[in-house]
C-alpha cells in the first residue's frame, strides 16, 4: 500500500498512520506533509521505526527551504517517481 501524507503531521493522526505501515508499504509525504522528515520533530522516531520505505517529494522540501534539516532515512524523489509509486501500489491511502 502507498500511504501519502499531504498535510502537516501536526494536523494528522500520525500514531494511527504509523501503526498501519507494513514492510511492503511505501510512505510518501508531499506538500506540508514533508515536515514529518525534519530532524528532531516529535513524529520522526515513529515513522522511522516503521518498516515501510520512506519518501519525500524533493520539490516540496526545497520549496519550504528545509532540505538541510531532513533526516537521511527519507529518500527525496520527483513527482515522476511519485507516479511510479502509484503504479506499483494498487492500494493507496491519503492522510
From TrEMBL:
Its main location: cytoplasm. SUPFAM superfamilies: DsrEFH-like (SSF75169). GO terms for biological process: tRNA wobble position uridine thiolation. Keywords: Cytoplasm, tRNA processing. GO terms for cellular component: sulfurtransferase complex. InterPro entries: DsrEFH-like, Sulphur_relay_TusB, Sulphur_relay_TusB/DsrH. It comes from the Bacteria. It is found in: Cytoplasm. Part of a sulfur-relay system required for 2-thiolation of 5-methylaminomethyl-2-thiouridine (mnm(5)s(2)U) at tRNA wobble positions. Belongs to the DsrH/TusB family. Heterohexamer, formed by a dimer of trimers. The hexameric TusBCD complex contains 2 copies each of TusB, TusC and TusD. The TusBCD complex interacts with TusE. PANTHER family: PROTEIN TUSB. This is Protein TusB.
Amino acid at each position: 500500500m502507498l500511504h501519502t501524507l499531504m498535510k502537516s503531521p501536526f494536523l494528522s493522526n500520525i500514531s494511527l498512520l504509523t501503526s498501519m505501515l507494513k514492510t511492503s508499504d511505501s510512505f510518501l509525504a508531499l506538500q506540508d506533509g514533508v515536515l514529518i522528515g525534519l530532524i528532531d520533530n516529535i513524529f520522526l522516531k515513529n515513522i522511522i521505526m516503521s518498516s515501510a520505505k520512506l519518501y519525500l517529494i524533493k520539490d516540496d522540501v526545497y520549496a519550504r527551504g528545509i532540505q538541510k534539516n531532513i533526516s537521511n532515512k527519507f529518500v527525496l524523489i520527483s513527482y515522476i517517481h511519485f507516479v511510479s509509486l502509484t503504479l506499483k501500489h494498487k492500494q493507496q491511502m491519503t492522510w
